[in-house]
Amino acid sequence: MTILPSTSLRNQYNEISEKCKQTGEPIYLTKNGEGDLVVMSVEAFEKQQALLKLKERLLDIELEQRSGAKYYSLDELDAALRKIIG
Prior knowledge:
Layout: E1 2-5, H1 7-11, H2 13-23, E2 27-31, E3 34-39, H3 42-66, H4 74-85
Parallel strand pairs: 1-2
Antiparallel strand pairs: 2-3
């Protein structure tokens, strides 16, 4: 984990940007010794957002199953699709 003072963003933007892109890890910025911001590459952010959406969808599916919604195993789905396709 990298922690830098917020003034580093102004003085070392290119280096911080490059480090975020190379490592895929966020950099934590402090202001007056306290946590203030987190900087990360767009790629890492988008990957994180996609993972959160996937986890949210999986949780929704699990809750649907627990509430009694009908679901199919992969084998059942495969057999149904083969029957439809012929």
